[in-house]
Amino acid sequence: MAVDVWLWGALALHRRKAVLNDALSAMPVAELPDGPAVIIAFGDEFQRDANFSSTLVTWSKTPGHLAVLCPPFLNQPCALPVPWTPQRRTYQAKGGEGLAALLAPEVSHQLDGRLQVAPLPGATWTDLTIATAYYRAHPASGVFAVTSLPLWSVRVLDRPEALRVWIEDQYALAGQSMARKADPEPAVFRPGSKHFVMLMHLLSGSFADGEAAIQQLAMSSIFQISTDDARQALLELTNHGLISGMRVSDAGVGALRLSPYAAYAAALQRMTT
After folding, report:
1. What integer pLDDT is reported at residue 118 of this predicted model?
2. How many CB atoms lie within 10 A of CB 98?
């Protein structure tokens, strides 16, 4: 890891810290560090302890700081840093990429509220519910992330690199001090109507390549955008990670879930799965 990972609060003393120590070399810390760092803590402690939560949120606003809350959670709303709620899942999570796919059988919550969907692989499930979300005060600030993934699961020991990549991807959003800052555009890209049309079109079928998808879209009686707009949307969605290999990525599904087309997109997924 290019940045230090620390365990704070009850997690620093819990037996579950052993997995995070093995996979990330994560160590307990009594005081939050000043320099670039990742802090992992239990979500239920954050929900219960007002001083704990306000301190961690304030710390996470500094560029190069990433705070991550992981299970367990209390089944009740939380107001910081913006209103959000961990809701108990009534059926197993499905889909996801990387770490999310590995830990899906153990996920017991989904996230709702005003947190943003992380523009990263594995941020949502195939039913459009949210696995990982985050808050960032502005593009140059640090990141406060909440995930339903049990990062401390023993499954991680079979694929520790999946957890390392997941942490690095989250940290890449953490402001100007981030270790892997290459292109900030994916974090601020806001898809418009032509992008949502293209995403729904790709959900509706399988296409060999971009030109095949555009040709089929031109003949559609449901989706109506110009060929030029379709090409531009396809390029921008690919560049920003909402499309991968002519398939809608988890980030693209998350964007649809938060769009005015969420209900229609969900119906399309049910019809094609």
Report:
1. 82
2. 18
Tokens 């031109």 — which residue? 218
Kindly report the backbone phi and psi dihedral angles of residue 225, in degrees, each rounded to the nearest multiple of 5, phi listed first.
-140, 160
pLDDT given at position 187: 45
User: For the chain, what are the domain ranges?
Assistant: 4-181, 189-272
| CA–CA–CA angle 53, 80, 192 (5° rounding) | 140
What is the rounded distance in angstroms from the CA atom of residue 179 to the CA atom of residue 2? 7
Query: Strand pairing partners for 122?
Result: none
Report how far residue 91's alpha carbon sits from residue 245's, in angstroms, rounded to the nearest whole number: 29
CB contact at 8 A, 245 and 258 = no
pLDDT of residue 140: 86
Q: CA 251, 253, 257 angle in degrees (round to 5)? A: 115
- Looking at beta carbons, which pairs linking 232-239 to residues 24 or more positions away fall under 8 Å? 232/194, 233/194, 233/195, 233/197, 233/198, 234/198, 234/210, 236/189, 236/191, 236/195, 237/191, 237/195, 237/198, 237/199, 239/185
* In contact, 86 and 75? CB cutoff 8 Å: yes
The rounded average pLDDT for each run of 10 residues, N- to C-terminus, in the chain (273 residues) is: 90 95 94 95 97 97 96 96 95 91 96 90 90 91 96 96 95 66 51 90 88 89 85 88 88 86 81 69
**pLDDT at residue 1, as a whole number:** 62
Looking at the domain that runs over 4-181, which CATH code has it been given?
Answer: 3.40.50
3-state secondary structure of 236: helix
